[in-house]
Write a structure and sequence with these properties.
Layout (H helix, E strand, L loop, with lengths): L2 H8 L3 H19 L14 H14 L1 H11 L6 H10 L2
Helix pairs in contact: 1-2, 3-4
Length: 90
């Protein structure tokens, strides 16, 4: 297969295909496997805090709920992280 065909099949950028080919040449199929420790680690929000924030967000909105809680706690997650988690329901 050509690089152009692989781009179509995998729906990725050409550079990604070349990166994969280089990794394969360096170490075979093992080098293509995901490595442990890669990527962002999930931020743990204690469940009781999350439930309280969720209830407050329903009452006054996400922004205001976050600001109110941020005043009382040293928040361990950014507003965007909290907003994504509230919207996903997880």
């Amino acid at each position: 297969m050509t690089v152009s065909e692989l781009v179509e099949v995998f729906s990725v950028h050409r550079r990604t295909i070349y990166n994969w080919l280089n990794r394969f040449e360096e170490g075979g199929i093992e080098r293509l496997m995901d490595q442990p420790g890669r990527g962002n680690k999930p931020i743990a929000i204690p469940e009781p805090l999350f439930q309280e924030l969720k209830q407050r967000a329903k009452a006054v909105g996400i922004s205001k709920a976050y600001r109110e809680m941020d005043q009382h706690l040293e928040f361990m997650a950014s507003f965007d992280t909290i907003r994504r988690r509230l919207k996903s329901g997880n």
